[in-house]
Amino acid sequence: MAKRSRPTLRRRLLGRELRRLREETGLSQEEAARALNYTDSTISRVEQGQLPNYHALRAMLDVYGLTVDQWQPYLDMYERARERGWWQAYGVDDRGFIALEHEACAVWEYQPGYVPGLLQTADYIREIFALSRIKHPRRWIDNQVAVRLKRQERLTADPPLRFHAVVDEPVLHRVVGGRALWRAQLRRIVQLSELPNVTVRVLSRFVVAPDGWNGMFIVLSFPDADDPDMAYAEHSSGSVHIERKDEVTGCRLTFDHLASLALAPTESIALIERVAAEL
């Protein structure tokens, strides 16, 4: 069900281009491997997104029939695939959720317990980590706050990330960090919901035990049609990446079901504003 790593989008794009070039020459993976003195599995891994070294890439382009003057677009793709993501400066590697979110063009998130990360204020983030039963040093928390705020830049980037959240109503009434902090957090949700690419719906507490309401999950969609949607879920001891098509489809259908039961966006924001005003 779950996979812990997934090559970045740029590496997958390069891998698909190399597969296309190989197929256009009429070579099977086994034939290409023999010509390059590689194993079949090496060719397969490269085509699935594992980055070859520079000289291996040049050898593949040669075997696939490209003349030197035709190499540059693929060398440019290679250099882009080698670029470090911003998250690595914060000690986060390419195998986690952040790299996937960075590549996505659309995200659907259901949250029964917390404000979605893309809508959180710095004070809320800090308070959530401070309340954790696992105590972290101040420096670690500062790093996590910086990472989460950096992620939020996708909402106003060009092109912006399309973000649709369904939040369980009890989240709005669970005051975190005191009334002033919580009021500011609720107003931040309202502010971000004004962006044309952000939709926030509240699942009323009067909706009784709908399917899928008992755990958070996120579905991500990517700009390349060949790159399938995937899902992500967190639990008490970690998280999972979900890539099986039927399971990802199930998550998306569950999200759509919850969204259909939730208040309309305008009603949801009105409710959030009322809760903030009553604090």
From TrEMBL:
Pfam families linked to this entry: DUF5753, HTH_31
InterPro entries membership: Cro/C1-type_HTH (IPR001387), DUF5753 (IPR043917), Lambda_DNA-bd_dom_sf (IPR010982)
Molecular function as annotated in GO: DNA binding
Top-rank taxon: Bacteria
SMART domains to which the protein is assigned, alphabetical: HTH_XRE
Domain HTH cro/C1-type: residue ranges: 18-71
Annotated protein name in UniProt: Transcriptional regulator
